[in-house]
Amino acid sequence: MTKQELADQILDSLTVEDWEILEDRNSQVPVSAHNRETLLALRDTETEFDGEIEEERIEEAKALLGRFLEEHWAEQPAAHKYVTAASLALAFVLERPMHAWDAVHYAAAVQDEKVRYYCAYKEGGTICDHCPTRHMEEITPLREAKMAAVAEQYGDVSAEIMRTVFAAGFSDAGILPVEEIRCHEEVRKICEENRCRAYGRTWACPPAVGTLEECSRRVSAYRYMQLFSRAYRLEDEFDFDGMKDAMMAFKKAVDELAARLEEKGWSAGSQEQQEDGKSPAKLQLLSNESCTRCKTCTYPDAPCRFPDRLYHTIEGYGYYVSELAAQAGIPYMNGRSTVTFFGAVLYGNKDE
Ligand code: SF4
Question: Given the CA of residue 203, which atom of ligand 1 is nearest to it?
């Protein structure tokens, strides 16, 4: 069977009434947002799906799903068809994880210009076998080798931070000694042109982050920048909803990283510490894009509501992310129909 035939079969398995339920986000039928959006996106896409799928695998997945739902969700029979349809679409047509990528801690890695997802929870002999995520063991040795090289060149702290970066789900990471990083006046000028419509709107972007001199002073209190990235798969180059979802998922992953680093005793510190750069915290995190944590930012009338979770933007510090990526030895772009976001950890106080 071709993927397109399966996509059509999945769409035909739902009635007009089912689609009305999916479109009504307040409906009483318990469909998860992930499954709902998956099915609506499948219906609305203009993509023609290429490739063949073994019918036996589809039948096996359907049977496993049926048994699973009967056993674990018997009280909601009306919802089963949506779970089944969305799971088949994700596993065989879209080739994405069966769970929302920010709901489970997948690892992502890019190989041959393709984003691949790895699941630490994947087990054999269950419905998970049909999920296109791969087993963690496939990337673990590659990452261990990278961390061993980092430990040798930059020390154990750098390797441990990289381990934490990978554990938080990022696809790649690389290290730059801070004295080798250059900021550029023209990047700040691009911010001022406000094409991204983020300039002067939150505490995470210029001018709130301070002048380039102030940003550089803050950065130069640290020895290393560990640049990290995560690539996300899109339906196509015009998948703007996918890009927005990916950006939100990236920001969640940065929060996850901050929490994991904090657990290990590396706190991002107070906003004051980040601002003065004289008594730096153990580390500082930078993130891509602006801050979207609050519906309406307090800027400029009142202080940030979440100063401990305020991550200034890399671009706002005057860096060309493409230049940083090249220096850190990680890809800036990861192939067609993907979007890659970047963040950075600054660490290693010079005073210590
Ligand atoms: S956390 Fe809220 S108040 Fe602080 S910069 Fe972000 S949007 Fe603004």
Answer: 5
